[in-house]
Design a protein that fits this description.
heterodimer; A: mainly alpha; ABC transporter involved in vitamin B12 uptake, BtuC; 69% helix; globular; B: alpha/beta; Rossmann fold; 2 domains; 7-stranded mixed sheet; 45% helix
């Protein structure tokens, strides 16, 4: 097999893996948009906040310690204990559920019936608030996330694909990051669990009812408040998973909030209302941008991925304005 | 009653006057946002050194220093707003702490007569003081860094015919070394591959797959923020030898290597100042600033690379202020006098030792023509088990035969564009 073809196949594989990571971020957007029609600008910051909280709990960090020390002249930073990763993840989930309750109670409950742009602006405010809160609670320094995820290229994959080069010394097997493989498995489980939840549980069905028609759902006794708290909690959970995966790569730091930028073309392509759309959109964007960079990047000076993802999404929009899996909106006059 | 009112008015003016007489050093810091992890230690180091001078020496020449912090969030527009809102408060010298902000402030500060010190960043050709009368970028700039990296590699063996890849932030900052490296590639016969990474740099799979395919002998990185951490992690993922991976000084702090853990061991970074906390000045900072409860931050950044850089910038500003006081015979200096002090700055080893910073940086002189200093560059290496940086190559000269013509060319173009006549004749 020609070496360039093998390299191309390696790029496709890695593009698929990157696409899964983009899809993880996009999923959180989809959940909230589907159930409430809100484009949640704060989704990236939620991933950051969840990851910060996870590391803080694991390391036994005292929340607001800088503030406490400045106000009372103390010098406390840590409780002196370390919480195991699984327990810390569960505790972080509790925090994210609490956050969902507070968001519903103090923000969106007061904005029921407002225009979508007002709700969108509220999420912008929420993003700034949450970023500042994360800074005050846990500090701004970069934190190492050690939840036991494997990292580095898989030597097994390398060794067992080397034969494809048929003795070509320039090819030494496919490179696949172990972290990306784990992310793929987790994303698959997550999507299956979310689909099962929405299809086979009472709350899931209520969530779908709210997504279809708020008024009709209310008329049959579905609590809008409860469903929105549930949806924001689920989005918080997805944000935590995304925060862990991205945070394991770069450390947990405030740039994590920018991962939302990677989700936008995925949403445009996959549709804002489809969970499978987020996954398929992520995969198409991941593969598309990597292949384009591999094939045309050197001719165009490189760094094509960011803009090409949007170009790819726009090309799809020309043919399917609602995205690949989005609901077609028909307004009759 | 009139007498009482008059007395009160005089008292109010007197109470206000010490503030007016402070030596004001604005600090355009960024303690929030995606780059806060890099901005906080620098701002802490800058403020702590000025606080030390106040607490230990009673200020500079008997006049207290006043650090005016303004949060930019590493955002150019906010940086310009900070400049506009602080310049009227007696600002002596600006440290923009961002190449983008520096570019915006060069014409403004020059028109206002306030000097800028962009140490190790900003517009490289500002080293030509004949054109950039109010801008200083001593003791080293981006082009010195590029040449310093190549000189270091040449000291390790012949680089003719070797492949060197530049992984850079796809911005004005990241593109700075390209021209220098292209000239050096032609001069020394190595092959240069350019690999841009788009902001913010969280996704670099394509670039590192290309490095894995092309197997360059060395990788040089001009990154900032999350790009650095991801690059070091990706290099570790493809098992690229860390000893062959060199970052510019903005890619060489603890922040950049700690997330990768043990796998970052051996990573190298350029520097123009000392590393670690084994200098007498840190004991003074602990005693007079931290223990007294006057530390700018939590006091947990002391001795880190970026804290040291902030401290070094403050020390150079303070020494320039002292020089200005000596030249003009007054302790209460103006921005114009400060500029004169910066242009006449002489840093000797004896002076550094007296300040509690022996061997912390190179000796150098600034002149009207040369605002860039000597361009001496050292090399540091990360020890992941000890979690420390060590200076493995002393401050050495960069290739001014290549750099000086580039500085002359770029500054001449700026002078022609802005109709600037030389200020040194």
């Amino acid at each position: 097999m020609p070496t360039d073809l093998l390299y191309g196949a390696e790029v496709v594989l890695n593009g698929l893996m990157s696409g899964v990571l983009y899809a993880l971020v996009a999923l959180g957007f989809v959940l909230i948009y589907k159930a409430s029609g809100i484009f949640n600008f704060a989704q990236g910051v939620m991933a950051l906040f969840a990851a910060l909280t996870l590391v803080g709990i694991m390391e036994g960090q005292v929340p607001f310690s800088h503030l406490i020390n400045a106000a009372f002249g103390t010098d406390i930073h840590h409780f002196g204990w370390h919480v195991p990763a699984v327990a810390a993840i569960l505790l972080t989930l509790v925090v994210m559920v609490g956050f969902a309750y507070l968001v519903q109670r103090f923000v969106f409950r007061h904005l029921v019936g407002q225009e979508p742009i007002i709700l969108f602006m509220a999420t912008i405010g929420l993003a700034y608030f949450l970023e500042g809160m994360g800074d005050l609670m846990w500090g701004s320094e970069i934190k190492t996330l050690a939840v036991g995820l494997p990292q580095g290229g898989s030597i097994w994959v390398e060794e067992n694909t080397q034969w494809m080069g048929f003795g070509n010394e320039d090819f030494y097997g496919f490179f696949i990051d172990k972290l990306d493989m784990v992310a793929t498995v987790i994303a698959a489980i997550l999507v299956l669990a979310l689909i099962a939840f929405s299809q086979y549980t009472k709350q899931g069905r209520a969530m779908r009812a709210v997504a279809d028609d708020h008024q009709a759902a209310l008329s049959v006794g579905v609590s809008l408040n409860f469903i929105w708290i549930l949806v924001w909690s689920l989005a918080g959970f997805v944000a935590l998973v995304a925060g862990i995966m991205w945070g394991a790569k770069s450390g947990v730091q405030f740039s994590l909030s920018l991962i939302a930028l990677k989700a936008l073309p995925v949403l445009m392509l996959g549709g804002f209302t489809s969970i499978p759309g987020a996954i398929v959109g992520g995969l198409i964007i991941g593969v598309g941008e990597k292949l384009f960079e591999f094939s045309f990047g050197p001719m165009l000076g490189g760094a094509t991925e960011n803009w090409f993802a949007y170009v790819l999404a726009l090309i799809f929009l020309v043919f399917r304005p609602q995205g690949l899996f989005g609901e077609k909106i028909i307004e009759r006059v | 009653m009139k007498m009482k009112l008059g007395t009160m008015a005089v008292a109010a003016v007197m109470a206000a006057s010490p503030v007016m007489a402070d030596l004001v050093f604005p600090s355009l810091s960024y303690r929030t946002g995606p780059y806060a992890a890099g901005g906080i230690p620098f701002a802490d180091g800058y403020a702590d050194y000025m606080n030390l001078l106040n607490a230990r020496d009673g200020g500079i020449g008997g006049v207290m220093t006043n650090v005016l912090e303004c949060e930019t969030g590493y955002n150019t527009e906010k940086g310009v707003e900070c400049y506009e809102s602080t310049k009227g408060q007696g600002a002596l010298v600006y440290q923009p702490l961002s190449t983008g902000i520096t570019y915006q402030l060069i014409p403004k500060a020059t028109a206002d007569g306030i000097p800028i010190h962009s140490m190790g960043y900003g517009r490289t050709s500002a080293a030509n003081g004949d054109v950039f009368s109010n801008v200083f970028n001593y003791p080293a700039n981006y082009w010195n860094g590029a040449s310093g990296a190549i000189n270091y590699l040449m000291s390790q063996g012949d680089i003719a015919g070797k492949k060197i890849a530049l992984v850079y932030h796809n911005s004005a900052y990241g593109k700075e070394p390209i021209r220098t490296l292209e000239e050096l590639a032609e001069k020394h016969g190595f092959e240069l591959t350019l690999l841009p990474v788009d902001h913010p740099g969280q996704e670099q799979k394509s670039q590192w797959l290309q490095i894995r395919r092309e197997k360059p002998d060395n990788v040089i990185m001009y990154g900032w923020g999350v790009m650095n951490q991801v690059a070091v992690q990706e290099a570790a993922n493809i098992r690229y030898p860390m000893e062959d991976f060199i970052g510019i000084w903005w890619s060489g702090s603890e922040n950049d290597v700690l997330p990768a853990g043990e796998k970052a061991d051996g990573y190298k970074a350029l520097t123009f100042h000392g590393v670690g906390d084994d200098f007498p000045v840190f004991a003074d900072i602990q005693k007079h600033v931290v223990d007294a409860g006057n530390a700018a931050g939590a006091g947990d950044q002391i001795g880190t690379v970026l804290y040291n850089r902030g401290l070094y910038a403050a020390m150079l500003a303070a020494e320039a202020a002292k020089t200005a006081q000596e030249i003009h015979g007054t302790a209460d200096i103006t921005p114009t006098m400060m500029r004169d002090g910066m242009e006449a700055l002489v840093i000797t080893e004896a002076k550094m030792a007296a300040l509690g910073l022996p061997g912390f940086g190179p000796e150098f002189n600034v002149s009207c023509e040369n605002h860039g200093g000597p361009g001496l560059v050292g090399m540091t290496q990360w020890d992941a088990s000890a979690k420390t940086w060590s200076l493995i190559n002393e401050f050495a000269p960069s290739d001014m035969d290549v750099i000086q013509p580039l500085i002359d060319e770029d500054s001449a173009a700026y002078a022609a564009e802005n109709k600037i006549e030389g200020s040194c004749n």
